[in-house]
Predict the 3D structure of the following.
Amino acid sequence: MRHVAKVGIYPNSYQQASFAKAFGCVRWLWNNSLAENNRVYKESGKGLSRTALNARLPGLKKEYPWLAETYSQLYQASMLN
């Protein structure tokens, strides 16, 4: 027999802003990495590996300082997907 627990979360305004910033940064990184992967694929016929995509993160954080405001694990998980 399975037991199910429904849990609701009700973030306060600070948490909502934090979630929105994190989701926006991850979405931007996903789209940026997808564009870079497509560019490399068109040039070489091979895409970038997850390791290569993760290796781009430090440079992107220097280029776009607002990326450093959220946890890097979110970006790594995005590259895993």
User: Anything to note?
Assistant: The chain has four helices and no strands.
